[in-house]
Amino acid sequence: MSDSEKKYILAIDHGTGGPKTAIVSTHGDVIDWAFQEVPLHVEKGGGVEQDPEDWWNAIVNTSKKVIANGHVSVKDIVGISNTSQWSGTVPLDENGNHLMNAVIWMDTRGAPYIKEVYKGLIKFSGMNIIKALKWVKRTGGAPGLSGKDPIAHMLLIKNEYSDIYNKTYMFLEPQDYINLRLTGKFASSYTTIGVHWLTDIRNINKIEYSKKLLKMCKLDQSKLPSDLINSTDVLGSITAEVANELGLDKNTKVIAGAPDVPSAAIGSGAVRNYDTHIYIGTSDWVVCHIPFKNTDIFHDIGAIASGIPGRYMAVNEQEIAGGALSFLRDNILYHKDELLREEAVPDVYKIFDRMVENVPAGSNNLIFTPWLIGERSPVDDSTIRGGIYNLSLEMSREHLIRAIFEGVAYNINWLFIYLEKFIQKKKIKENPGMTKNDIVIPEVSMIGGGATSNIWCQIFADVLNRTIKQVKDPIQANARGAAFIAAVGLGYLTWDQIPDLIQYSNIFTPNPENRAVYNKLFNEFTNIYKIMKKTYKRLNE
């Protein structure tokens, strides 16, 4: 395809830290991108909010910047595709004005209300089994007890901000709020609405709200988007106001798209069944497409509608990954006043990499637990917290930083073990000759900001004892996935072509010399949770 024939997507990767807006070709080449940070408002008692207007202003600014750079002609930008942070809640009036800050995926204030929904006699891990099974049967998952799901957000607003609840015309996910600002249309996709845990996905080609679940939660369906469409469907054209603001053609199409997790799966190239990717951003997840609907409710691994219409994907999420390094930078190494002066703060992440490379595997048996705001998977526990264990005078900040890298890898390995168990039986059945002793997931693609670190990729290879494939431009995987969804929706691409379009910067294989130390420390990592969970509960409940 000649340059004159190439078409492009304005892809918005709207993460928790802020939006990265990119111009991406319909075949996944990232031409240009810009980022703008947005504030996070953290309140005592588990409140974590963001101002939707901050989101929109940052998206407009970054979009205008990449368009104005002029690397591609505006007439060749054929679509806009957004991919937002997931599991957030924006209450809106009928004119699309937000009535309060968005309650985002880290917020735990709704925990008491979801626990009330689960109330009953027969319980396991705090959940009424009968009610939990009703969810699993229909949705492929269930809301956790931590209060971080949209169900809990809406119940929080209903119970503690009743005036806002009564004024709310519609609750939208961040994904759908951005699409509303682009098109003026209230809608959601089958994928986006999935983690509300209120849609019946047993027939993957005909997904509808479950009246039984809505009744059980005492939520009003009329406050949820009635227009549910495929992620690849064209939601509409941009409004005249947006066209004028961004300098785009008024007929530019907006694709419904999908939130960060399903978009990242597509952008990583892991679109075939059982192909797996790990995302390392503020949070992390380990996700793969699967040809079946199943749920491991005890380790928070569910099956939801994929960003690929008619497909399922195994989903999960852990609360903090790269966010632990951001915490170290922003709350310990640098004063807030210094962070306001760009020249005062070097690129600490590159410095971290160099420091970590010079510390032996295992950090002299120092262990970091990255549960800074509780955890979702493989344990759903909002009261556990981060910690540094086995600290001694012989250690330096180099040991501490490497321990953070390794602690995140231990945490993901904890989840990875259960994901492999989740798919093993089906994969064996589909692959004659495969046995229980064979490796279920032999290689994993790595994406997200954390995947730019070669030493972290090697640590993951060593801790997981699996081959790690470092996707080229890993920080752009979400935007690339959003562009792929749009490209398929607009007829420029097919799903089968995507794996061949992915390039890799490096392939990391496990170092057998580190096997013993990482096995030992991983076992102690899980022991720390078993020993400390009751203490954390007493301190933080």
What does this structure look like?
- The protein is α+β, with helices and mostly antiparallel strands.
- Among the domains are: 87-172 and 192-229, Nucleotidyltransferase, domain 5; 289-442 and 515-535, Nucleotidyltransferase, domain 5.
- It has 16 helices and 26 strands.
- A hairpin with a 3-residue loop joins β4 and β5.
- The mean pLDDT is 93.
Name given to the CATH architecture of the domain at 289-442 and 515-535: 2-Layer Sandwich
Radius of gyration: 22 Å
CATH homologous superfamily label of the domain at 289-442 and 515-535: ATPase, nucleotide binding domain
Task: Just give the CATH class of the domain at 289-442 and 515-535.
Answer: Alpha Beta
In what range is the share of β-strand residues? Answer: 15-25%
**Which sequence of strands runs across the widest sheet?**
20-21-19-18-24-25-26
**Stretches with pLDDT under 50, minimum 5 residues:** none
Defining traits:
single chain, 541 residues, alpha+beta, Nucleotidyltransferase, domain 5, seven-stranded mixed sheet, six-stranded mixed sheet, 16 helices, globular
SSE layout:
Elements: E1 8-14, E2 19-25, E3 30-35, E4 41-43, E5 47-50, H1 52-68, E6 77-84, E7 90-92, E8 102-103, H2 111-117, E9 123-124, E10 127-128, H3 129-139, H4 150-160, H5 162-167, E11 170-172, H6 174-183, E12 188-189, E13 199-200, E14 208-209, H7 211-217, E15 228-229, E16 234-237, H8 240-246, E17 253-255, H9 260-267, E18 276-280, E19 284-290, E20 302-305, E21 312-315, H10 323-333, H11 336-339, H12 348-357, E22 367-369, E23 387-389, H13 397-430, E24 443-447, H14 454-464, E25 467-471, H15 477-489, E26 504-508, H16 515-540
Parallel strand pairs: 1-6, 6-17, 12-15, 18-24, 24-25
Antiparallel strand pairs: 1-2, 2-3, 4-5, 5-8, 7-11, 9-10, 13-14, 16-17, 18-19, 19-21, 20-21, 22-23, 25-26
Helix pairs in contact: 2-4, 9-15, 12-13, 13-14, 13-16
